[in-house]
Amino acid sequence: MSFNIALLAGDGIGPEVMFESVLLLKEIEKLYNCSFSFREGKVGGVAIEHYGTPLPEETVELCKRSDAILLGAVGGPAWDHLPVEIRPETGLLQLRKQLGLFANLRPVKVIPPLTKSSPLKDSVIMGVDLCIVRELTGGLYFGTPRERRIGLEGEEVIDTLVYKRYEIERIVREAFELARLRKRKLVSVDKANVLESSRLWREIADALSIEYSDVKLEHMYIDNAAMQLIKKPIEFDVIVTENMFGDILSDEASVLTGSIGMLPSASIGNGPSLYEPIHGSAPDIAGRNVANPLAAFLSVALMLRYSFGLSKEAECIEGAVHSILLEGYRTKDLADEGKTFVSTSEMGALVRDAIQNKYLDYELVNFYEKCR
Ligand code: NAD
């Protein structure tokens, strides 16, 4: 029951939420029969400062030798002027590519005490529990050519949206498998009325649905999906979509949960999986001890469950997060009148304390669920 975890804190609020995540894992070690060894690597802006590249080879090697990878966030204004090949975000994209992390799972579950933190009505978001399966290593973010150039009519720019059949097949299959473990409803999001890549996507999803006849498949255009996600989010179970659509839809979905600081993610492929909050490095609040660490904590829970098979420990973290929110503690992003605002480190300490009272947490959460 001993696991090696690669820690890639990155930039901005990344190191702040990572620090609290490590303290959380040390607390889990004390209470359960498991141990973690941590090895740190650099990616993003911090790697540019140290190595002149956003993804040093030794970081890739460290990740490959680990049982799982925990990442904070990358990027920031200090590196925005750099050419795209050496920007922090390129380091993260290349890491996903080199580790073959083609599937990004983004669970979106509305936690009852947080309904007032969302600008949407309680009646719209109550009970929302969906998962976005985003393709992570193809599409517009990786296609070439990608450049500015001088064409016959002057300056022009090109990005390329390219998918191979097997890339679409494996991500859609992953989504069907996930839907089987949930409510057996899959919405495949595309823009098949305009894009050729979407037409192949839809064709492949239809072909696979014969094999997964127990799952109800529906197709939806991205523009409609963006609207339905806000209008009737309760209707969704699993959503599968290509890289850029998934990137945008999941930020939108974070509004249902109250804050982007609440959404965890798991990126899986053939090797070790990578876990990270969906938010970025939030330069506007970095270094002020106000970032919400809960998305990072919930990412830790996903890691314990999916990479290490430690379900009890994962539930303990999720239960502790719920109970702290139920008690009325909030970081600033979860604006809600009458609640107690706490800093990043205070929220970390509260969740660690709640973990020690793990049985009490469950009783509280169960009690609350029954009252609803
Ligand atoms: P962002 O997610 O960093 O921030 C968007 C807004 O949400 C900001 O107002 C920020 O303060 C707030 N926010 C984000 N996380 C929060 C948290 N945990 N607690 C409280 N508030 C939080 O997105 P952005 O501003 O578009 O991008 C900032 C930088 O992050 C850019 O350099 C971008 O490229 C990078 N980025 C990185 C990742 C990643 O590492 N996976 C993802 C998205 C953006």
Automatic annotation (TrEMBL):
Q: Which NCBIfam families match?
A: leuB
Top-rank taxon, per record = Bacteria
Every copy of the Isopropylmalate dehydrogenase-like domain together lies at 4-351
Q: What is its EC number?
A: 1.1.1.85
Q: What class of enzyme is it?
A: oxidoreductase
* Keyword terms of this UniProt record: Amino-acid biosynthesis, Branched-chain amino acid biosynthesis, Cytoplasm, Leucine biosynthesis, Magnesium, Manganese, Metal-binding, NAD, Oxidoreductase
Q: Which Pfam families match?
A: Iso_dh
Organism for this UniProt entry:
Bacillus salitolerans
Binding sites annotated in the UniProt record for Mg(2+): 223, 247, 251
Q: What is this protein called?
A: 3-isopropylmalate dehydrogenase
Task: List the residues marked with site Important for catalysis.
Answer: 141, 191
Quaternary structure (record): Homodimer.
Keyword Oxidoreductase among record annotations: yes
Entry annotated with the keyword Glycosyltransferase: no
